[in-house]
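User: Hey, quick favor. My workstation is busy. Could you predict this chain's structure for me?
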Amino acid sequence: MLTNDLNEIWGEVLPIIQEECTAVAFNAWIKKLSPIDLKDGVLSLSIDNEINKNLVFRRYGELIRQSFKLVTGEYPELRILVQSQIDEEKEQKREPQNKYDKYTFDNFVVGGSNQMAQAVCVAVADQPSDVQYNPLFIYGGVGLGKTHLIHAIKNYINENEPDIKIALVTSENFTNEMVEAIRENRSSEFREKYRKLDVLLIDDIQFIAGKKSIEEEFFNTFNVLHESNKQIVITSDRPPEEIKTLEERLISRFKWGLQCDIQPPDFDTKLAILKNKAKEMNLTIDDQILYRICEVANSNIRELEGALNKIMAYKSLVNREITPELAEEALKEFGPRDKADITPEFIIDQCSKALGVSQQELYGDNRKKEISSARKVTMFIIREILGTSFPKIGALFGKDHSTAMYAIKSVENQIAVDPKLKMNISDIIKDIKNERGQ
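Assistant: No problem, here it is.
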């Protein structure tokens, strides 16, 4: 529908809504809505922030739809978007990858946790034909900057060496593209596209694990490119040997080059990231508030930015200046992290550090006493904090449910007679919960 027509209709809808809600509600929320589009039975409206969006949708969504029906005879589905979502949709319509154009080496904040990964990525981008690090395998948890770095490589090469044939694809898109090519009898075209590249960047490789035909195709593509001295860069949420059900021959090839891990940022790096983000948003925020966000957001960059966005949304909602007191209100208003934020993987990571045993050893089959004991304690702590079932705990470590049950019962029997072990485990559990603000 044309924008002018929709604006006219919305002008008729508003008085109907106004009659059905309080003046305070109408002025605080409904008046902030603006029509965007009416297409295929879906009415899209914009609003200023995520909090107001959720509140309006929950409390007044049905009223808006009914009022719209009274004016037009249509009873539309309803979408309410904030500006960032509108911008993202516009970017996607222009070019799916454009939203990543902002990812550069210049705006990647470097700290001790990511310094090596950043330096190697810069080296690869600067000399993509050198293949000193081939493949380059970057791994780390969610929201730590892997996607930023791999897109920064692509953007740098595109700008400085535009003749180089480069492709960046997620493993999910690689899979979908291959399936579609098979269905449309274009397999040879698909292979030619990827095997004639100078640089292949693939994000989140762990998602091809267990998909035999995809693993086979990627294995062959990898071999062709590697034998031709073409650069391959791969990201994953864990090192190759910890990607369960991934074929051994792929694990072996991923280890041919260089592996770089990215750890959660330390306090100074988190502070630098927040200052960089505030500068992008043209915000002036007291360091005391930034320090508090660093304390609250413990695990990754997305949490940091999420906490900052929460404070900004709260500022808009209550129409007050950002002060340390307002920041505390905002963070309290949206609640502390709940149990869902503590994942089995996070517990395994923390237990690995506390018990002095690598994650690889915890996941593996090594039966040395200290490693076996650490594995059992880790299983017990997962059960204690999350209440996870024995089959699921077993599956995490590649074991069956009876092995997990035996391990956990063994620890229960030990702590019943060993106060020191009981205290050590209690301290680990306490530290894990404190890390997540519980």
